[in-house]
Amino acid sequence: MPFQPSAAPPRAGITAVASLLPERVLSSDRLMERVAARSGLALPPGLLRQATGIAARRVADEGVYASTLAVGAGRRALDAAGLTPPDIDLLLFASASRDLVEPATAHIVQAELGSRAHAVDVTNACNSFVNGIDLARSMILAGRARRALVVTGETPSRAVRTAPADLAEFRAGFAGYTFGDAGAAVVVEAVERGGILDVDTATHSEHWEVGGIPGGGSRHPRGDAHTYFRGDGHELRGVFEKVGTAVVDRTLHRTGMDWDGFARVLVHQVTVPYLERFAELTGVPAAKLVVTVPELGNIASASIGVQLDRVFADLAPGERVLFVGLGGGISITTMVWEKS
Q1: Tens digit of each residue's pLDDT (9 = 90 or more) over 71-122
Q2: Among 39, 89, 162, 337, which residue's Cβ finds the most Cβ atoms within 10 Å?
């Protein structure tokens, strides 16, 4: 019997991407003026902008929800791929924000889109969107799905305390003032070449209490005070600096790649100083980063999707991109993707 070469291993990749930004722009200076006026605190001019490097962010208007941003980005991604909602059989709403505690926001997105896919929420703080892409890839490679739409809609600006009772409460919620709103979406499906080549993760759950929004679950089901973000931004940064570079180093070593092998490096962006520190610790050339945080702030899990949307059209087939997702909890995810 003649030798039969084995079939090429199945691959899944990102074939379309889109993002959606709310129209309303809120500057950091205006935000601090609002906080000062409502709290009576004497805040130094330019405090937030100088501390974070964030000049502005987009803020969703009344009646615009996490699902609204996800639906808008999802429609754009489907249009870019030349698809319609019935063409997808897996819909993942992968976001730190949501419309309701129950049901899954994926069902609200699906109802608006008009699709009939298996619909699921994926939630892992600011790492949600990258985790959603990884889950979509896994489902496709397992034969459980043919084509997936992964969407996120982030509205963390609604978890910002604009009238803190005192300076201690202001400091406890200061990291939340970096937040902005955005939506993003990708189509993930089987590809003949390229696609998602490598995924790695690191999780340090002992740090889960460093920051978050405690309300809405069984610990704090009620109480307005629990609906605001609170956390120590310096402690969060310290944890990521301590544990975040190891998985990046491991990815480079395992894949045999160096920074020259990547056309772009997309990393979740919290503040300008933290992004600069990430580049310093990892050695990634600044020219390979797609910097969005000064104009958009920390847009949670939509960060990497928005960055990808900005460079997707300029990437040539065969060029590779490294995603570095960071999320409270603490979790880090790296993903090596090659454009098909």
Answers
A1: 999 999 999 999 999 999 999 999 999 999 999 999 999 999 999 999 999 9
A2: 337
Phi, psi of 49 (to 5 degrees): -60, -45
C-alpha distances in Å from residue 246, one per residue of 1, 118, 333: 49, 35, 11
Residue 317 above 60 pLDDT?
A: yes
DSSP 218-248: SSS-S-GGGGS-EE-HHHHHHHHHHHHHHHH
**226 to each of 36, 145, 275, 301, how far by Cα in Å?**
21, 38, 29, 21
User: Quick one: which of 136, 152, 151, 22 has its CA closest to 78?
Assistant: 151
Whether this prediction's pTM lies above 0.70 is answered by yes
Q: Which two tokens stand for residue 72?
A: 């808008």
Using CA atoms, how far apart are residues 226 and 160, in angstroms rounded to an integer? 11
Contact 207, 239 (CB under 8 A): yes
| C-alpha to C-alpha distances, 42 to 73, 84, 162, 168, 229, nearest whole angstrom | 39, 53, 14, 13, 22
Give which of 160, 182, 172, 181 is closest to 227, Cα–Cα: 160
Quote helix, strand, coil % in the chain, to nearest 5.
40, 25, 35
pLDDT at 230: 82
- For the record, the structure tokens of 276 come out as 């600069």
The tokens for 261 are 């092998």
CA nearest 214: which of 152, 167, 159, 269? 159
CB burial of 301-317 (b: ≥16 within 10 Å; e: otherwise) equals bbbbbbbbbbebeebee
Pair of tokens at residue 99: 């419309």
Report phi then psi at 39, rounded to 5. -100, -20
List residues with catalytic annotation: 126, 268, 298
Rounded distance between C-alpha atoms, residue 31 and residue 181, angstroms: 14
Q: Specify whether the CB–CB gap between 156 and 296 falls below 8 A.
A: no
User: 């063409």: which residue's tokens?
Assistant: 87
Burial class (CB in 10 A: 0-12, 13-18, 19+), 178: buried
